[in-house]
Write a structure and sequence with these properties.
Number of helices: 15
Number of domains: 1
Shape: globular
Distance between the termini: 47 Å
Largest sheet: 9 strands, mixed
Strand content: 5-15%
Number of strands: 9
Strand order of the largest sheet: 3-2-1-5-4-6-7-8-9
Length: about 400
């Protein structure tokens, strides 16, 4: 199906069925299904492990026709998904991420917006059953739905804080997934992209911070573009990641280390859930607002990070006039716009083109002033904040 599925319960990865059903039995290499070994810091899965076997054989099958320039995109969903849930022909009937957003169905747009079930792989340009001819999607389905009552009674935490902790644990599995994929022959030299939403940004930011800290220069160099939608990760954690990435690049005597480009997509209409993230997540030192509000919030523009506020009229006009794309961050008559980032099809068209068109979407190209007005970028401070 040109999609590689992985399910993760905290530190334990699973090779699910082709449609995303979790298989609790021990991994069987012949079937390429089952429970894999838990991955904990500081070790990675070695080249002969079942985990590496699963990633390698899946890549070989799904990337058989992968052509130069076709993207390899690692997709990471956000809060309130459960890989243990059953799969369903109707995406809105389950919280299993493989069935809810990592499918290839195209339904009624209004229904998908109401139930936030829009297909990520389809609208990003991947096609089922083409053996990678249009690229390969890696669907990282992690457990982000701890029970409300059990979190409070058994763990003395609110369920959002526990989910944030699960993301911390699963970040190492995500990094191991990138490492294993980078070692496979079918993807040799092929750049990787990452597409994530909401609390999925915690997994991505943390994984890249760990990779930079460990000096994984070659893997960092393979990463091309990171698209973050409504990021729920703390600003201070993103700043730490960027500091480590820059330090890694500066320590390269050849000056050849290439850092990924970050496209941080935000919306002012997402304030409600952003404030929940800031006030119900675990407390931390430094800037504990989220990147979906403030970006890196460093006071200076980073060369490899751009903030795009999709409900900003100036950016909407620029996208329409310069690229013929209609974007939106505000679903009419709706307060909960947290999923509108990907349920609005014009937005998905923007992400598809960022991931599939190289030169027009380079950050330095977007900021150029010689041929057209530069892209309106940046995140204005919001006029209210329950956490202040």
């Amino acid at each position: 199906m040109s999609i590689i599925r992985l399910s993760v319960i905290q530190e334990t990865p699973y090779a699910p069925t082709p449609d995303g059903v979790l298989v609790h039995d021990a991994y069987q290499r012949r079937r390429r299904q089952g429970k894999l070994e838990a991955l904990r810091r500081p070790g990675f899965a070695n080249k002969t492990s079942d985990f590496a076997h699963y990633i390698e054989t899946q890549v070989a099958a799904e990337a058989a026709k992968l052509e130069r320039g076709a993207p390899v995109v690692f997709m990471v969903h956000g809060f309130l998904f459960d890989p243990k849930a059953g799969v369903s022909p109707e995406p809105s009937d389950t919280d299993n991420p493989h069935s809810r957003v990592y499918h290839f169905q195209v339904g009624d747009a209004a229904h998908e917006q109401r139930h936030h079930t829009t297909s990520w792989p389809h609208w990003l340009g991947f096609e089922s059953g083409d053996a990678g001819e249009h690229g390969v999607a890696v669907a990282f389905g992690w457990h982000s739905a701890p029970g409300l009552a059990s979190s409070i009674i058994a763990h003395f935490k609110n369920f959002y804080s526990r989910a944030y902790g699960f993301a911390e644990q699963s970040a190492w599995v995500f990094l191991a997934t990138l490492e294993s994929a980078a070692r496979t022959a079918a993807l040799a030299g092929h750049p990787f992209d990452v597409f994530c939403h909401s609390l999925g940004s915690r997994i991505v930011v943390r994984a890249l911070a760990m990779a930079a800290e460990a000096g994984h220069r070659e893997l960092i160099g393979r990463l091309r573009r990171i698209v973050i939608l409504g990021g729920a990760e703390y600003v201070v954690e993103a700043q730490l990641m960027m500091q480590r990435l820059l330090r890694l690049a500066d320590s390269d005597p050849s000056g050849a280390t290439r850092l990924p480009s970050f496209y941080n997509v935000v919306s002012r209409e997402n304030d409600v859930l952003d404030v929940l993230a800031e006030n119900f997540g675990p407390r931390t030192f430094g800037n504990s607002q989220v990147i979906g509000h403030n970006g890196l919030d460093t006071g200076s523009r980073a060369p490899n990070w751009i903030d795009l506020q999709i409900d900003r009229p100036e950016l909407q006009r620029w996208m329409a006039e310069c690229h013929g794309i209609r974007i939106s961050g505000d679903r009419p008559d709706n307060v909960w716009d947290h999923w509108y980032y990907y349920t609005y099809r014009g937005n998905m068209e923007l992400y598809r083109r960022i991931l599939r068109e190289d030169e027009p979407w380079r950050i330095e190209t977007l900021r150029r002033t010689d041929t057209r007005p530069p892209i309106p970028e940046g995140v204005p401070r919001r006029w209210w904040n329950f956490g202040d």
